[in-house]
């Protein structure tokens, strides 16, 4: 009888430990990891935009290759220059 009680207590303790591990993972480790990933994505986005703006300022345009043989051209927009053109 004592052996059965010890086995039952061991199983219950293991179940509690496993459930505690799942809770710790879902509420502490996973959000921390997702926050790290989001921070790195924002950092990469800022670096990309900084490089695009720098290249557009330096060259007057930016070429971004898309799907093999297609290219997207970006050029800076100056509202004063656009409004100075005569209306026809």
- What's the helical proportion of residues? over 70%
Counting DSSP H or I runs of 4 or more residues, the number of helices is 2
Largest sheet: 2 strands, antiparallel
Low-confidence region ranges: none
Mean pLDDT: 91
SS content category: mainly alpha
Shape: rod-shaped
Strand line-up in the sheet with most strands: 1-2
What string gives the helices and strands in order? HEEH
**Content of β-strand:** 5-15%
Task: Please give the alpha-carbon distance between the first and last residues.
Answer: 100 Å
Domain count: 1
Number of strands: 2
Radius of gyration: 29 Å
Structural account:
This protein is mostly helical and 88 residues long. The chain has one domain (2-83). Helices cover 73% and strands 11% of the residues. The chain is built from two helices and two strands. The protein has helices at 2-59, 79-84, and strands spanning 62-66, 70-74. The chain has a two-stranded antiparallel sheet. The longest helix has 58 residues, at 2-59. It is rod-shaped. The N and C termini lie far apart (100 Å).
Give a quick summary of the entry.
It is built from two helices and two strands.
Name a few traits of the molecule:
single chain, mainly alpha, two-stranded antiparallel sheet, 2 strands, 73% helix
């Amino acid at each position: 009888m004592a052996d059965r009680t010890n086995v039952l207590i061991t199983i219950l303790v293991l179940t509690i430990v496993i459930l505690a591990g799942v809770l710790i993972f879902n509420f502490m480790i996973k959000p921390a990891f997702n926050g790290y990933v989001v921070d790195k994505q924002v950092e990469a986005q800022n670096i990309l935009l900084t490089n695009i703006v720098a290249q557009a300022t330096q060259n007057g345009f930016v070429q971004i290759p898309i799907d093999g043989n297609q290219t997207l051209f970006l050029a800076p927009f100056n509202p004063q220059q656009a409004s100075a053109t005569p209306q026809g």
